[in-house]
Amino acid sequence: TKNTGRNGHHFFQKSMNANAHNQLQLLNDLRAAIDHKELRLHYQPKFVAPHGPVCGFEALLRWERHGVTLTPDVFLPLAEKTGLIIPIGEWVLNEACRQLHQWHLEGHPDWTVAVNISALQFEQPNLLEKVMEIIEYHQIPPAMITLEVTETTAMRDPENSVNILERLTQYGVKASIDDFGTGYSSLLYLKRLPASELKIDGAFINELIAGSEDASIVQAIIALGKTLKLNIVAEGVETAQQQNFLTEMGCNTLQGYLLGRPMTPAQIAAKPDSEWQAHPAN
Ligand code: C2E
Ligand code: CA
Ligand code: CA
Ligand code: CA
User: Fold this and answer.
1) 39 pocket-lining for ligand 1 (C-beta < 6 Å)
2) Which residues form the EAL domain (predicted)?
3) Which of 84, 92, 125, 278 could pair with 52 in a Cys bridge, judged by C-beta atoms 3.0 to 4.6 Å apart?
4) What predicted TM-score, i.e. pTM, was given to this entire model?
């Protein structure tokens, strides 16, 4: 009837407003999050395949909002859309470098850290200057920092990406092509990108079993990466079968819940050093 229609419309508008209101509230809170010291970095270990030792950590952003820990999927799209990702990304790089310097002083001089760089951040003309400034401030060897750029970001304007990554890697930081397999790489440009690492997207690892379609894709990615002399990382490794299978296929580095979840620096410090050494096969 007419009434239902009107009510339905009214309800729709109300929920739209509520949603817009929530997003606005989220944005306002996010603007203040840096100043209010609500951002945190968790660190997920990356291990030499198959059983370690640890070869570095990936910094993953968290937001402590009203006592709730939010993951990036909740707020990063908004940060990217509004440009807030620029100051946030700068905070992330600075905090990761500060933490790495502390780890080096605390007896882990060989640990490295990887930082995710958003598309907007990657395209800032002063990215290299910012990176240099932060790394020099914390007195870290640039080679101990990896910048993870997704395949999709890198292939948006491949010619420009080659340029940006050449300047960054000439300075000395490492580059990793993240979420590989989900974008559309031009092999011509992939060959020219001065990256040292390729990260196979977790989507291919999830249901990885011998003989599956995903297994053939992963095999092909590993072969491609080897040809280009890249270190091959698999993310999202959750089972021992995946661990063994990826190792057999020639994957160099493993990351995932099976080997280590993202952890706070306090949780990392609480683990005995033996945790980071190579483990015997089980
Ligand atoms: P990503 O770079 O692909 O990071 C891997 C994501 O998979 C992380 O989610 C990690 O917690 C999760 N993960 C790790 N191991 C496993 C596993 O075994 N199984 C499953 N199911 N998931 C696993 P998280 O921390 O929620 O981050 C999501 C995405 O947000 C990241 O994906 C990255 O694209 C972005 N991100 C995180 N931190 C930052 C940051 O500081 N800056 C920017 N620009 N992006 C960030
Ligand atoms: Ca990443
Ligand atoms: Ca990834
Ligand atoms: Ca991913």
Assistant:
1) no
2) 23-276
3) 278
4) 0.93
